[in-house]
Design goal:
By secondary structure, the chain is of the alpha+beta class. Among the domains are: 74 residues, Signal transduction histidine kinase, dimerisation/phosphotransfer (DHp) domain (Helix Hairpins, Orthogonal Bundle), CATH 1.10.287.130; 152 residues, 2-Layer Sandwich (Heat Shock Protein 90), CATH 3.30.565.10. It has 12 helices and 10 strands. The protein has a 5-stranded mixed β-sheet with strand order 5-7-8-10-9. A 3-stranded antiparallel β-sheet has the order 1-3-2, with helices on both faces. A hairpin with a 5-residue loop joins β2 and β3. α6 runs parallel beside α7 and α10 packs antiparallel against α12.
């Protein structure tokens, strides 16, 4: 969770750490070099050089120029550079630490009084003597921070490294967002075939999840648009046929003028009923497809509901050669479910079996497997070609369209059954029986 959050957090944290470490490392190296210079006697050469420069400035330009020179060099050096006279007073009026008083005495008189270690003083135009002293103990991190020019190159390098890390991170974030933006623009123009997730490679974070969600949305919208176009085409076709027959029947009725027109009126009534059923099926399918149906769950006896649906089917085929049998292998089966949706699914599956069972038998079974109820409806009809077993649950798909005029089917029954069962949290599938016929199995949560 929050993988991108942690990447951002850790990246900025690492960038700050790199910058801080770079600054501290630069300061440490600089301080080390200064102490190294002191240990190897290089400081003596530096002091002699500085004293010579200061003497030249004092002799040529006077005390004010000497003070300006002392200010300038103190700002450029990490160690404080003091110019102290015999009385222990600094040229720039700064406080002289006690530890430097002993060093001043050494520079003036030598280590053992013999003059060894004595250092030539800086003489002002007024004849006053000053000794230049580097305060190594005064080199500290606060002094370094107040004089950034001392380690300007190191700080600049640390800044560039931190900036590079932030640049890589910014590109890492914005690049996939630009791809998502292009994909969304394509969707806005009606091109739902573009996919953003494939362009992100093996990336696994919130942006990749967003791309996957967009791809899923685009695929769903593309499917719905295609289904919409197919639905409009099929609906227009299905409505055109009964309307043509109604027009033909009306034409015949007008031609007979007073003769027996009952057959034509019966035909008009049948076609009107067919149109009514078709429109009702389309409305039901549309509500289920769009998710407009609001589930109203209630506790029901599933075995009684299936038995009632079988009884209704038997009433439809009363007097025909088709027989419907119900076998309950569960006994009392209670579950919480939307009863109208369940009735719709069972009615359409049984209706489909009745159309194609011919003179054979229809077997309805109620079983339980773990935490699910299984309702299977098996007929003894011709079955379905294997390549169409999935397509028969799409609207207006019929194995033999020519049979719809005789049997009354419009290819919406199983499509409505599929959407109804899915809305109930179940699944539905069809397969051909080994002994012939088609079996449709409905699985519902118990």
């Amino acid at each position: 969770m929050h993988r991108l959050f942690w990447k951002l957090f850790l990246s900025f944290w690492v960038a700050l750490l790199l910058f801080a470490v770079g600054v501290l490392l630069a300061a440490s190296i600089y301080l080390g070099r200064q102490h190294e210079n002191r240990e190897f006697g290089k400081a003596l050469t530096l002091i002699e050089s500085l004293t010579g420069d200061a003497q030249t400035i004092a002799t040529r330009d006077g005390m004010e120029a000497l003070k300006a020179w002392a200010h300038e060099h103190d700002d450029e050096l990490l160690m404080p550079l003091l110019a102290v006279n015999r009385d222990g007073q600094d040229l720039l009026g700064r406080e002289v630490p006690q530890r430097l008083q002993a060093r001043l005495h050494l520079y003036m008189n030598g280590r053992d009084g013999s003059g060894a270690g004595r250092r030539a003083p800086l003489l002002t135009p007024a004849g006053e003597a000053y000794w230049l002293i580097l305060d190594y103990e005064g080199a500290s991190l606060p002094r370094l921070v107040s004089r950034p020019r001392i380690v300007a190159v190191q700080i600049l390098l640390a800044t560039l490294i931190g900036g590079l890390v932030c640049l890589v991170l910014a590109r890492y974030i914005t690049a996939p967002i630009e791809r998502l933006q292009r994909a969304v623009h394509a969707y806005g123009e009606g091109n739902f075939s573009q996919r953003a997730g494939a362009q992100l490679g093996s990336r696994r974070d919130e942006i990749a999840d967003l791309a996957a969600a967009l791809d899923g949305m685009a695929a769903r919208v593309e499917t719905l648009l295609q289904s919409h176009r197919v639905l409009l085409r099929d609906v227009s076709h299905e409505l055109r046929s009964p309307l043509a027959r109604v027009q033909a029947a009306l034409g015949l009725a007008r031609q007979r003028q007073g003769a027996n027109i009952e057959p034509e009126l019966d035909r008009i009534e049948r076609e009107a009923d067919r149109l009514n059923d078709l429109i009702g099926g389309i409305l039901s399918f549309s509500r289920l497809e769009s998710g407009a149906h609001k589930l109203q769950r209630e506790l029901v006896r599933l075995d009684l509901v299936v038995a009632s649906a079988v009884e209704d089917a038997c009433f439809q085929v009363e007097g025909a050669d088709c027989n419907v049998h119900f076998r309950n292998h569960v006994g009392e089966a209670s579950c919480t479910i939307d009863l109208p949706l369940l009735h719709s699914a069972l009615e359409n599956v049984l209706g489909n079996a009745l159309r194609y069972a011919g003179k054979g038998e229809i077997e309805v079974r109620l079983e339980r497997a773990d935490n699910r109820y299984l309702i299977s409806v098996a007929d003894s009809g011709p079955g379905v070609p294997a390549q169409l077993l999935q397509q028969i649950f799409e609207p207006f798909v019929r194995v033999d369209p020519s049979r719809s005029g005789k049997m009354g089917g419009v290819g919406l029954g199983l499509a409505i059954a599929l959407r109804s069962v899915e809305a109930l949290g179940g699944s539905i599938a069809a397969h051909n029986r080994a002994q012939g016929g088609l079996e449709v199995a409905i699985s519902l949560p118990a």
